[in-house]
Amino acid sequence: MGKTTGFLEYERQDESYEKVENRLKHYKEFTLPMNENKLKDQGARCMDCGIPFCHSGCPLGNLIPDFNDHVYKGRWKQAAEILHSTNNFPEFTGRLCPAPCEEACVLGINEDPVSIENIEKNIVETAFQEGWIIAQQPVARTGKKVAVVGSGPSGLAAAQQLNRAGHLVTVFERDTKVGGLLRYGIPDFKLQKDVIDRRLKVLVEEGILFETNAHVGMNISVERLKSDYDAIVLCGGATVKRSIPIKGAHLKGVVQAMDFLKQNNQRVDGINDFEEELFAKNKNIIVIGGGDTGSDCIGTSNRHGAKSVINFEILSKPSEGRPANQPWPYWPMKLRTSSSHKEGVERFFGISTKEFLGDKDGNLKVLKTVEVEWIFKEGQRPELKEIAGTEKKWDCDLVLLALGFTGSEKTLAEQFSLEMDFRTNIQASTKDYMTNVPGIFTAGDMRRGQSLIVWAISEGRQAAHHVDAYLMGSSNLPLKGEGDLPRV
Predict the structure, then answer these.
(1) With 251 labelled, which of 16, 395, 409, 438 sits at a CA distance of 20 to 30 A?
(2) What pLDDT is attached to residue 487?
(3) Contacts of 117 (CB under 8 A, 6+ apart)
């Protein structure tokens, strides 16, 4: 795989970025692609390690050494076939996945790992540019109809796989456009929406039907789905946002991050009619939450022209390198600095928000915090302890709560009479993804809770296999790591 001595000859290289002062002027993607020869060198770094732990690190089981080898040898079409055999949408994962495969790369034990994610992105972009990705309708139709609720990555993956099996698939999306969080949660500077539309065009040509402004359980009855479809796949995500139960949380200016990000994506898409304008220009912004969503809020606020941007994280500052208790090939909880962080932000760790203070008109003006430390005792849950004398007030006009999600909404579970777990995920068998109601399946964040885009696609693919088997008695759709027929 790759060049036998490639990992000794070539250092890791990643895509470069537009200068900060230039990219803050727009919402387009700002990575600068590498030339083909340099990409081949990166593919050559894949070291024929014998046991490719990257396979186990990837929730999709992508055949990473295989497509790296083809890139090294300039066989881009073969690389695209292998990549698409396990991943329906590598243009999404190649931009958005945190790349657990790279943390599991054998080369990463003592060197920089292979730049798998960047190679993946360039494979699929080459495939689109060369016209290799075209609609492929099933050879025959089964006559079975499947409803997929939710058009995020898990719903789209399930829909494409089930369509390939010959079923008639309709995807129901409650928003005005298809894509779920890809469309309305991920900023355009990380994923331009024409990238979604390009893939949707293929899905439509393959025969998948889409109904938008279709909120199942609200303006689309569950009785319609149960009567009109032979199986239902719920892929509505984990959309209940975590709140912060402290004094002043009701003030104007205390905003959920996803509301802020969705509105900006709509604004970029040409929509400007909002009941409440959520805009950061000339404001002191504080983002609470140190994950990817918080990072997206930072990048968006800087593009708005915020006066200042500060980021709070209640956890202690992680180490720069891999922690000793998280050895290779496990995913390490280490300090991660995104491109948005580099655009301008002050980051504070081990800090807890105590209260929001406003003016007489109910507008947020001040935020009160205290520094905290975590006490770890063997066999017990970590204890959060405030540090006396560290209270502080911060001027603030807009707080963005990037605190994650607590689970899925209850509407579908209640109307379909589905069981939920204590985290309000819809319960489904790990064996076949079916809920307690025969013929109703669930996948993605709605089943497993808030997770990664790569897990969502994997879940959609896995669920599709089991739905197909339920409808037909058996299924030729692949499970994780088995690979599919070439699609390019």
Answers:
(1) 409
(2) 42
(3) 93, 94, 97, 99, 101, 102
pLDDT at 486 over 60: no
* Phi, psi values for residue 402, rounded to 5°: -105, 65
Phi-psi region of 270 (alpha: psi -120 to 50; beta: other; left: phi over 0): left
- Asked whether the beta carbons of 193 and 183 are under 8 A apart, the reply is yes
| Per-residue pLDDT band at 2 (split at 50, 70, 90) | low
Does 145-239+406-472 match 6-129 at the fold level?
no
Dump pLDDT digits (tens) for 305-355.
Answer: 999 999 999 999 999 999 999 999 999 999 999 999 999 999 999 999 999
Is residue 358 within 8 A of residue 368, CB to CB? The reply is no
d(CA 230, CA 439): 7
Domain limits, the chain? 6-129, 145-239+406-472, 243-403
Q: What does CATH list as the number for 6-129?
A: 1.10.1060.10
Work out the pLDDT band at 481, boundaries 50, 70, 90.
low
3-state secondary structure of 462: helix
Q: What is the DSSP letter of 450?
A: S
Contacts 24+ apart (CB under 8 A), 176-180: 176/212, 176/213, 177/212, 177/269, 178/151, 178/210, 178/212, 179/151, 179/152, 180/150, 180/151, 180/152, 180/153, 180/155, 180/237
Q: State the architecture of 145-239+406-472 in CATH terms.
A: 3-Layer(bba) Sandwich (3.50)
Between CA 92 and CA 156 the distance in angstroms is: 12
Q: Which two tokens stand for residue 393?
A: 């007030």
Q: 481: Cβ–Cβ under 8 A, 6 or more apart, which residues?
A: 55, 60, 61, 63, 86
CATH code assigned to 243-403 = 3.50.50.60
Question: 211 and 172 in contact (C-beta within 8 Å)?
Answer: yes
pLDDT at residue 447 in the model: 96
Q: Are the beta carbons of 162 and 242 closer than 8 angstroms?
A: no
C-alpha 51/C-alpha 59 separation (Å) is: 17
Give the per-residue pLDDT at 485: 44
Q: What is the 3-state secondary structure (H, E, C) of 189-244?
A: CCCCHHHHHHHHHHHHHCCCEEECCCCECCCECHHHHHHHCCEEEECCCCCEECCC
Quickly tell me which residue has 């360039």 as its tokens. 122
Quote the CA–CA distance of 247 and 355 in Å, as a whole number.
5
